[in-house]
Design goal:
The strands form 4 sheets. A 4-stranded mixed beta sheet has the order 5-6-7-8, with no helix packed on it. Strands 1-2 form a two-stranded parallel sheet. By secondary structure, the protein is of the alpha/beta class. Strand 5, helix 3 and strand 6 form a beta-alpha-beta unit. It has 11 helices and 10 strands.
Length: 285
Amino acid sequence: MHELPSVNDLQSCAMYSHHNIWRDALVPERTFHYYHPDSKGLNFSALMDDVKNAPDGSFFLLHPCAHNPTGVDPTEEQWREISYLFKVKNHFPFFDMAYQGFASGDLDRDAQSIRIFVEDGNLIGCAQSFAKNMGLYGHRVGCLNVLCNDAKQAVAIKSQLQQIARAMYSSPPVHGILLVSGILSDPSMKALWVEEVKVMANRIQSLRTTLRKSLEQLSSSLNWEHITNQVGMFCFSGLTPEQVDRLQRGFHIYMTLDGRMSMAGVTTGNVSYLANAIHEATKFG
């Protein structure tokens, strides 16, 4: 079992839910390399080595877009290389699609990695969440898809999933599900939703650009290119725990100690204050 780490192997992802899920299911897990703290980007060579060296038929948890917590996604060509190696190794990719539309503003583009795996003949699983991109966080609405070899395998997997669901929640609340199905089944409502998702994504991208420019205009000695290179709701700022503490104590700006901040919380009204605070907190290392 291979699971996605938050920051390479520097620290635990215990604050995130995936580890709790595997532990409670009594599934043994290992982490693989993903984020490079120096480049603040993808550690692609180490990732590929881990995929290659994992036992054949391993289960990998992947984020298809807007990776949480790093905001770092593979390129299309890198996804193709990953998919090819998965096929060679007979690994099973399970995609956690929690932020579709938040990486590029385009729902189809954000699903490109999944399509690459399917086109290469990989069997896949995908957990799709509408909690964020439809504003239904409290409802936790989503769907689970598993691509099977044939109808017989599909029936067997479905029966197992039904047993698990029966023991966990029996039947889910219907209100949020009806909202999602209503929007997706109505062409005009779906088109409006797609446009609004794009507006949200564009706002976040615009504020990334503004935050980076503001830091550069303050003559910060640090490189802030990763702010605009990363995508999605979260920015892995590269701030140290000490710098995060300075932001909390001196400016009442709060983020996780690994430097992950929510770009959705940055606005035109507070971005200058945020940039000045980060500049002051990072002046002396």
